[in-house]
């Protein structure tokens, strides 16, 4: 349940930043969030991008 509420909060923040148009800060946040998601995905899958795992 906590994950769902965190995801919803993150989604709301991204939508608010996107609504600001040319705001350079929103681009910085976008890059940071994308990199954080890559790290989280690699940990969850126990594999780096383009790496195969058993199972």
Would you mind describing this structure in some detail?
- The chain is mainly α.
- Helix content is 71%, strand content 0%.
- The protein contains 2 helices and no strands.
- It has helices spanning 2-18, 24-45.
- The mean pLDDT is 74.
Give the key terms.
single chain; 55 residues; mainly alpha; 2 helices
Helix-strand layout with pairing:
Layout: H1 2-18, H2 24-45
Protein name: Transposase
**Separation of termini?**
27 Å
Can you summarize the main beta sheet? none
- Segments where pLDDT lies below 50 for 5+ residues? none
Strand content: under 5%
Counting DSSP H or I runs of 4 or more residues, the number of helices is: 2
Structurally, the number of domains stands at 1
Proportion in helices: over 70%
Large-scale geometry: elongated
Class of secondary structure makeup: mainly alpha
Number of strands: 0
Average pLDDT score: 74
Protein name: Transposase
Please outline what is shown here.
This is Transposase. The chain is 71% helix and 0% strand.
